[in-house]
Amino acid sequence: MVTALFTCFGTVVGLVGAVLLLVYVVIPIIGHVVGFVCRLIRFAFQELRDVLLISIALFVGVIKLLRATLCVVLARWDIVHKETEAAKRRFIEAYDRTVAVFVENPLRVIGIETKNEKHGYLHQVKNEAEEAVNQIKKVVGDSSNPEDKFDGYKVIGTLPSGGSGAKIYIATSIKNSSTVVIKNFELASGSQLPQIVRESRAMEAAKKLGLVIEHHLNNNRFWYAMPYHAGDHLGVVTSNLHNKSKKLTSKQLQTVLGYQQTLLHTLKEYHSAGLWHKDVKPENIIIHDGSAHLVDLGLVTPLASAMTLTTHGTEYFRDPELVRQAMRGVKVHQVDGSRFDVFGAGAVLYFMLENTFPAHGGLSDFSKESPESIRWIVRRAMADYDKRYTSIDEMLLDVEKVLSVKDISTIRPADLPSLGGEEPKVTVKRTTVNPTPVSPKRTTPSTGGGPFGTARVYAYKTKPTGILAVLVSILIGVYVVFDVNAPTKVSTPETIVEVQIPAGRILVVNDLLSSSTSNERKTASNKIAELGVAGWDLFVDAEKEASVRSWLPSDPISTAVSGSKLESENLTGILLIKNGENAAYKMYYVDQNGASVLP
Amino acid sequence: MNALTTTFVRRLRDRDESAWFELWQDFGPAIRFQLQKWGRGRVGFETVQDLTQDTLAELSKCIDRYDPNRGARFSTWLLSIAKHLLGDEMDRRNAKKRGSGVKPLSLDERMDSKSAVLQVDEIFEQRIFGAKICAAIRRTETEVDFLHFQVWRMRVLDNKVGKEISIQLGISEPTVSRHVAKIRGHLRDTIMQVVMQYSFTPEEEGEPSSAGMGGNDSEFDAAVSEAYHHHQLFLEKESARN
Fold first, then answer.
1. Within A444-513, where are the H helices?
2. CB environment B120-145: b (16+ within 10 A), e (fewer)
3. Which of these, A128, A103, A129, A106, lies nearest to A116 by C-alpha position?
4. In this complex, is the C-beta atom of A163 within 8 Å of any C-beta atom belonging to chain B?
5. From A385, which residue of chain B is nearest by alpha-carbon distance?
6. Are residues B81 and B107 in contact, defined by beta-carbon separation less than 8 angstroms?
7. Does A396 lie in the same domain as A270?
8. Counting Cβ atoms within 10 Å, is residue B167 exposed (0-12), middle (13-18) or buried (19+)?
9. CATH classification at residue A262
10. Please, which contacts does A475-478 make with residues 24 or more away whose CB atoms are closer than 8 Å?
11. Three-class SS string for A440-451?
12. Integer angstrom CA distances of residue A279 from A284, A507, B107
């Protein structure tokens, strides 16, 4: 029994001893042996690799040195520096690898790691990589964790940036899970202060339309959230439409006009709120749920703004007249900005019909088959500033008229309401774009309508009122001709006459007293701007004015000025501004034929 | 130079922005195209835009030095400025690469240098002529009634028959003819004005006649339509490249 117990104990001890021997002696020895063999194999590979790379590094280094020498001969100093730097790096690499071949790699075989990477080429390469990453971060901005950037929102994606320098994110609201678009301007990410100022102005305007959900501004950045419309932009949708067939079918034309209709309704709401979009183009129109949603509020401007017009916008969709007026320094309120949106809307319709830009503006040719009535709408919208639709409403009526018929090809331009045709009886349904109530038109007082204020309605059908007017004119003419006893009219310089636009340069001479009210001076300056817009070649030049004043009669209104004097000054006439009665200003056009008061 | 040209030149000299914009609108595409062709991908679109603007700005500056005795055409003059500016840009880039201060040639030096004798190709001439005709059409459109112009446009540029136009617009055929004749007369005068404005040599002034615009009404219409459609094609190509 005892023997059996000892035997059992001996067996257990033996087994435990064997296991311990295996774990602590045999396995480590095998591990070391295997490790040593592996290190030997690695050593062989490393030696082979390093020997090969030493020769390559030396070869490249020598080549770089030769290039540097050549650049010295060619006097291309900036390249010399680059080449010598590169050669230096290669030689350092060769040196490091040589050390590795003779010292580090053999030591590694016996398990000693000696490499000090701080001075090695690998460290240099690592530094370069880190520097490159930092540079990229500097350029594109640190995009690490954009989720934390916007309080109350979780960023779920990004959208391509436009030309405004902002970053655009898609985010969901933590409060109500709605999806929004966030436009973020950061000075650190390359946004410019003027862009931020312009965008914040536009955003203030767009808030009226309920297009901005919330906004935040601090010293470094400005961001705002807008409703998100998932979908492709009109450029993609149009391209898909045209890819299906060479010619747009009647149904496709209905679709195109449907998009146009919703776009026009949106623009109408902008204009009713006293705003204009200023950047109507296919990329800014998102097709979602069969409706066209106008996005990008970056250039939205109040129609009554006192700012000077700018040329911002997109070529082919921006009216050339806008550029012309901007170059003349015309103020926004002196033109009807909504008509520039009409041009953009016409250009967008052209784009949908032709699948290309209107490269020739209003003169662009139609190469694809389309009904004459739709072409007419495009041409009317893209016509000259004073000949196009006077409002989006007018254009919308025409579009709805075409949409109201079953077969679009049957409708003629003559049937369009703008050409005297009947208005559509049934209002075509559309998707509501902006549910927020809009503010009254022209929220700030306009200081002058300018020559653009008068609306010209083009109705080419003869109307009875016209015939009546002609008859009345004939009767008045007969009365005047036969009224021989009537006293002869004496024309005085004070008679207000319609002055033809003079063909040449006109110097502005301002004789308004300093006591004139600022309102009066402002009205006079608006009038000058209006004349400029109407085509008068006006200019202000202090030197020329001084020279003109030296020979200008003391009362140029009653005394004619000398034609030769005007010619010697290279002038066609003078625009004289004087104080009239009750401190109101009076404006005279003076040339060798006398003076005329401008209305 | 004729009186119209000198008036325009005077406006340019006086830094009249609208005169500059006229140049940009009418001749910008042709110059852009030529610069891109010369640049052969070495200059990007933005640089081409800048160089085109510079060309037209330079035109308004150096127009004072124009010497009619050289007999250079308006188109040649434009082209030489564009080429000078492009050369200047390339010199500047090369100088930057070399790090040396190689001074670019002045416009006059470049114009006088034998190596830079400009060979204006026929296509460029056609584009400049097309630009002049389209400028005249645009000017006519501005000056006349919208309906009258559209009638002419449908008849001449869209090549529609009088009867079809009368049905489409709800007017009689004689009215169509009357409107077309009215616009044609206006356009004849405007073409002469525009061509005279942008012409430095008698040869350039005679271009409309050579293109068949001096003939009877149908010849005139056909020639205008051809010039317009050529230019339209060119503009489409040019915009597609950008």
1. 464-482
2. beeebbbbbbbbbbbbbbbbbbbebe
3. A103
4. no
5. B142
6. yes
7. yes
8. middle
9. 1.10.510.10
10. none
11. CCCCCCCCCCCC
12. 8, 36, 39
The verdict on A544 touching B (C-beta cutoff 8 Å) is no
pLDDT at B146: 94
> Any alpha helices (H) in A367-407, and if so which ranges?
372-381, 392-404
CB contact under 8 A, A359 and B232: yes
Mutation site, A74, A363, A386, interface B, largest B CB count within 10 A: A363
Q: What is the CATH topology of the domain spanning B3-120?
A: Rna Polymerase Sigma Factor; Chain: A (1.10.1740)
A211 occurs within a structural domain: yes
Q: Give the whole-angstrom CA distance, residue A347 versus residue A343.
A: 6
Q: What is the CATH number of the domain that holds A154?
A: 3.30.200.20
Kindly report the nearest CA distance between residue B143 and chain A, in angstroms.
9
Q: Distance (Å, rounded) from C-alpha A3 to C-alpha A9?
A: 10
Same domain, yes or no: A309 and A405: yes
Strand A505-510 versus strand A573-579 pairing type? parallel
Instruction: Mark whether A280 and A156 lie in a shared domain.
Output: no
Cβ–Cβ gap A76/B98 under 8 Å: yes
Last residue of a domain, one of A227, A249, A274: A227
Rounded Cα–Cα distance for residues A486 and A480 (Å): 9
Indicate if A153 and A250 belong to the same structural domain.
no
Say how far apart CA B192 and CA B194 lie, in whole Å. Answer: 6
Environment class of A253 (CB within 10 Å of its CB; exposed 0-12, middle 13-18, buried 19+): buried
Q: Which helix (H) or strand (E) is B220 found in, with range?
A: helix B217-241
Choose among A45, A179, A170: nearest CA to A108. A45
**In angstroms, what separates the C-alpha of A461 from chain B's closest C-alpha?**
9
Distance of CA B56 to the CA centre of its chain: 12
Contact A327 B236 (CB under 8 A): no
Q: Which member of A359, A365, A372 has the closest CB to residue B239? A: A359
The answer to whether position A273 is within a domain reads yes
Residue A50 falls within a domain, yes or no? yes
B60-104, pLDDT tens digit by residue? 666 666 665 666 677 777 777 777 777 777 777 766 666 555 555
Query: Are residues A307 and A397 located together in one domain of the fold?
Result: yes
| Domain edge (last residue) among A187, A203, A227 | A227
What averages of pLDDT result for each successive group of 10 residues across chain A (599 residues)?
Answer: 81 89 88 87 89 91 89 76 85 89 84 60 58 52 58 84 76 86 79 70 74 79 84 90 84 92 92 88 89 85 82 83 81 89 95 89 88 94 92 94 88 90 66 37 29 34 55 68 45 46 75 60 64 64 74 76 79 80 73 78
A475, with CB counted inside 10 A (0-12, 13-18, 19+), is exposed
Q: What residues form DSSP beta bridges with A575?
A: A508, A589
How many residues in chain B? 242
Residue A557 lies in domain = 505-597
Q: In 3D, which of A304, A362, A299, A376 has the Cα closest to residue A335?
A: A304
Same domain, yes or no: A110 and A201: no
Interchain CB contact of B21 with A (< 8 Å)? yes
Q: For chain A, how many structural domains are there in total?
A: 4
CB contact under 8 A, A419 and B169: yes
Question: Which residues of chain A does B11 touch, with a Cβ-Cβ cutoff of 8 Å?
Answer: 537
- The shortest C-alpha distance from A442 to chain B (Å) reads 29
Indicate whether A215 and A123 sit together in one domain.
no
| B235, B237, B241, B242, best to mutate vs chain A, most A CBs in 10 Å | B235
Q: Are A579 and A513 in contact (CB under 8 A)?
A: yes
d(CA B97, nearest CA chain A) in Å: 7
Residue A133 shares a structural domain with residue A170: no
Which pair of tokens denotes residue A178? 């709605």
Residue A439 lies in a domain: no
